[in-house]
Amino acid sequence: MTINERRTTNFQYADCNICGNDNTSLVAVQNNYRFVRCGSCGLVYMNPRPDADALKTIYDTYHQRNGKDEADWERMMKGNFREVSEMLARKFPSGGRLLDIGCGYGHFLRIMEGLHWRAEGIDPSRHTVDQARKAGRSVMHTTIDDAVIPEYTYNAVTLFYVLEHVTDPLKTLRKVFGLLVEGGVVVIRIPHTTPLVRLLSLLNIHNNLYDAPFHLYDFSPSTVTRLLEQSGFTAIKVIPGEPTRPHLVSERIVSVLSGYTAKLLYRVSNETLLLPGVSKTIIASKP
Predict the structure, then answer these.
(1) Is the peptide bond prior to 213 cis by the omega test (within 30 degrees of 0)?
(2) Does a cis peptide bond (omega within 30 degrees of 0) precede residue 240?
(3) Which of 136, 91, 96, 90 is nearest to 112 (CA)?
(4) Spatial distance between the Cα atoms of 115 and 16, rounded to a whole number of angstroms
(5) Which residue in 73, 103, 108 sits closest to 88, CA to CA?
(6) What are the structural domain ranges in the chain?
(7) Does domain 5-285 fall into CATH 4.10.640.10?
(8) Which of 16, 19, 20, 274 could form a disulfide with 38 if both were Cys (CB 3.0 to 4.6 A apart)?
(9) In this structure, are residues 209 and 200 in contact, taking their beta carbons and an 8 Å threshold?
(10) pLDDT (mean) for 228-252
């Protein structure tokens, strides 16, 4: 399924990426960007949004905004990277070949290389690609849409906080499916922001949790599962993975407390309860 786009100057309108419908209701307006919910499947997305050329431009400085540096990104993602690396090591004891989409500075690639994987990355930011290459990582300066890679290449593909940024998630996941060997896995990390936005709206508290214009989508466990199914994946498992540790202390406290609360509830509920509003980690297989 492709997005039905209706373009204006520097912006494009899109129908639902899951079901193709345009029956939506307004969820929130943040930074003058509208986020809507599909009336058929529940997918939340920005509509209209900056076009592809505009998005490529804003990502040139994405990793440096709000005073963040390479150490901040490594600190924020360290726990999640460790958790996923251990997950992949159990799945593939002999290692394999991995592609990290949106690899940033290449921290996850370094971890996987230490586990004897052949690890490669792609990222649209020239700055982070240059830094990763200086550190010895194998990284391409491109997007997943533009990358030219043979099919059946990787045992694992990872997307840490990437799927919410791409213009066509279904197209991206179908391409990832093709890049994997049979029995390969995709691991995705995504925010689940809408429940918090709705709660804060009821309390009349202003927020920018959708991080517009960078986040184009907000996925629930059900919508990301449906996307993966439509892309051909099976054995889909959604878990409340290790919490991130953001740059700001206040955000770090909220992330850690909510993250570990979500993990506890998931465990005591026999892996059935997924706390809304907390980031999720998803693993799925190519049969």
Answers:
(1) yes
(2) no
(3) 96
(4) 39
(5) 108
(6) 5-285
(7) no
(8) 16
(9) yes
(10) 94
